[in-house]
């Protein structure tokens, strides 16, 4: 027999014979098995019942577990009595078939099925499996939830009713059925599409063939509810194109509107206007009333502007307190009319928490497509016009002027050239002597910046200094001038010329947090005695944030540095400031010297400045002195020093040092001979 088998004597229930298959199954020889108790080999309740009944219950055939030398084995066994002649001893036959491999395979299949079922139920997708005829083979609960299938419909296993329910649930039943038919005709094809259900759900449907040995045996469908993600995408799209505070289109959406307006304008040969609206002094509202109130004000302004526009005009918020208006179509007159309406509605009184206030706005206008067809160009041009309105007093509008745009482009080029000049060493310093009116001695020098560009030639400080101040590059230039001037003064000092050097300081440079430390560091590195450095400051530096200025001036005074006020009388002169600050000298601006001595107004101003300086214990120096009568007048009125072409223009360091050593001396009294001024133009550092 191929199965394991052994014979048991019923009298004592012991094995009397066993075959080789039994020996292999149990791991013992056939001889060794003889004499073993039958219930020791198989000892299940069914076995014991059968042996106790002495086989009277008939054939026993069940599955059980048998212990072997290799461990427990899952087997199918049968117990039956052996037919023997009457009077012969009764025997039973035990036949055992090893099913361990089959049991293991069944267990693995059950585990795989359980895992698959758990996976199907755990997934967020609805899963449906059909056979080649479209009958339902399996599905999960999520499938029923997505399609809203009644439970009883699934319990009845009515496939046609399920398919009919699904066809009735879609918004396009005809297209739905056409796609099903196409898949039936191509059973090995895959597909993916979106369905819109009558409930408003958006469902992604994916279908893959179920292949067995390369042949389609059905189809697997997955259904994913995309409703939430579609709504989220729509919301994200809305947020990406609309301002969250006002709900207006943002810059991204405005780009599309501009592109569309440009295409229409070119196709129909017309123009449109781009208005940039900037609220005046809006920061004061945020600072005084808070950002929450500021947001309310921005919403109010948006509603007001929107209400005064035409239906086809577009209002967008670019950010902060800036709005953009697309007036399409429009000529210059229509653009100005719209700007006037906006100015009017924005200026209506506002009230927040019982506090009334009035807003104004400044508007820059660019006409398109003549002045640009891209959003960047239109914003740039309109912003330039708006800045002009701001500088002229705000609360008005202005059309973009191409010439002003060209000036700004030139400024950008000049700014770049300046930065290259500083790196390339094209800047240089000249020094203009400062002369005592009492005895004609050179008592100091002012360091003046010069720049020769390879392409532009000599560039006047009056041209490039304002550009440097506007871009902030004046800080780097100022630091270079300070370091070079102090180094030169230290060299002169080492050669026996203890000559004070005057250096102009811009307002922006003075405001730098580490300005005082920078001055101290430059003095330490050069070894120049601090009293030989004089910083020339403008009046605007002193008036703006007077307390902070006073703190820095005293810090500089503690270093031992001298300080003077440059171009005195042209700014915001105030005795209350002058008497507080550690200022040692006033420089009378050249504009008041030019008319001396014949101009009574200039003469009166100069006398007043000299008297004020004496009252405050300060010295006075006059700049721009070009004639002997001017020098004589200043000497008679008690001015301490002068500088100008009457004595010498600004000189390079070598020429200046030669002038120190060899003369000429300035005249000390009226009528003395003086050198004639050179015909070359005057150049000095202008702020």
Automatic annotation (TrEMBL):
Record InterPro entries: Biofilm_reg_signaling, EAL_dom, EAL_sf, GGDEF_dom, Nucleotide_cyclase, PAS, PAS-like_dom_sf, Rev_trsase/Diguanyl_cyclase
GGDEF domain boundaries: 270-402
Pfam families cross-referenced by the UniProt entry: EAL (PF00563), GGDEF (PF00990), PAS_7 (PF12860)
SUPFAM superfamilies per the UniProt record, alphabetical: EAL domain-like, Nucleotide cyclase, PYP-like sensor domain (PAS domain)
PROSITE patterns (alphabetical): EAL, GGDEF, PAS
PAS domain location: 112-152
Residue span(s) of domain EAL: 411-664
NCBIfam families named among the record's database cross-references: GGDEF
Name the record gives this protein: EAL domain-containing protein
Species the sequence originates in: Rubrivivax rivuli
